[in-house]
Amino acid sequence: MPRAIWSGTISFGLVNVPVKLYSATRSKDVRFNQLHARDGSRIQVRRFCAAEGVEVPAEEIVRGYEVRPGEYVTVTDEELAGLAPELTEGIEIQEFVELREIDPVYFEHSYYLAPDKGGQKAYALLRQAMEESQRVAIGRVVMRGREYLTAIRAAGPARVMSTLYYADEVVPVTELEGLPGETVRATEREVAMAQQLIEALAAPFEPEKYRDEYREAVLQLIEEKAAGKTVVPMAPKRAEAAPPVDLVKALEESIALAKERAKRTA
Q: Residue 49: its pLDDT value, please?
């Protein structure tokens, strides 16, 4: 059973909805510790002064921001605390927008919002109204000492709150090199064939069909070595660079393969 990591209210005009916040995802990355190869003991990280070559205790460490190479401005905890956003216990909804207007690149982390005590009716009201209007709420919330821009959307019986990147945190596509210009155009036949390939590969999104095969292989390796089995490492797989092919021919062959795969699946 997941534990709530935050509780507060959603301010919707003059309506306040008591809610609890839960992590919507859980990391399953395989994490390793650093060990000394000679005796298998854990490696400790110690903080050393580069100028004096001595270990520095925690009480002598301060924050520094590099303004020029080798030149720093120090900032104290008290100075940062004075700039911190006002602590609130609510998510203030500022406007409602259509979900399709938010480019997925803006989404950062996602959380589930569930009703807290006494909030079931107001929670259900807001969820139903958002579903029927097909809009998501844009708001702000203060967590862990900083203010986040958030998007709240209906997700079945629950609601999902996603923190969003601010506009200046997203890299503009205009900064990318090598993008095709208006003069690079595909022929009508190529577009039609590409659309045919898309239709041949079209399917409902079923995330459970996809697995992290690398993570599974790493865990199997660990299990085998823990059981005392000798594992012979395999040579890394290297994909060969595909030779340039005729675009129309490649589309034709891809469509045929997609149709054949669909037949086998059926």
A: 93
